[in-house]
User: Fold this.
Amino acid sequence: MNITSYNEKTRYLMPLGMAILKGGYYIASADEYLYKFLDMNSDRTFTELIHPDDRQLFLDAAAKVEEQGQYILVRFMTIEKNYKYMLLRLRPDKFVVDGFRCIEVYVSDIISAMEKHMINRVNLTKYRRVMCLAEYL
Assistant:
């Protein structure tokens, strides 16, 4: 599967964000990174933020989260209402609200994270070369 077709640039990059979902998969709480990434879309249910073709994958993973944490790759809505592939890590949260065990979800823009990592790696290599030359000056 080639995921680069869903890698449009967005106004805000989010290498990693986190949310706690309550019943109906509404966002009960999230970190600043995810709220900035979602912007006006943050009032939607989490399932509405996932591409229609990937929703069942999310629902299946959410149903199994009590047994074991789940990792899934889904297309996730951006500020611009486009979709980007995101890696989701689901695990049960300690809170139970109205009989529903909340779900902790980590959302990672894996392509942006990889690109940022590569830039940092190049910078580190340049720095190491300069430091090696310092002893010869």
Notes: The helical segments are 32-38, 46-49, 55-64, 110-134. Strands lie at 17-22, 26-30, 70-77, 83-97, 100-108.
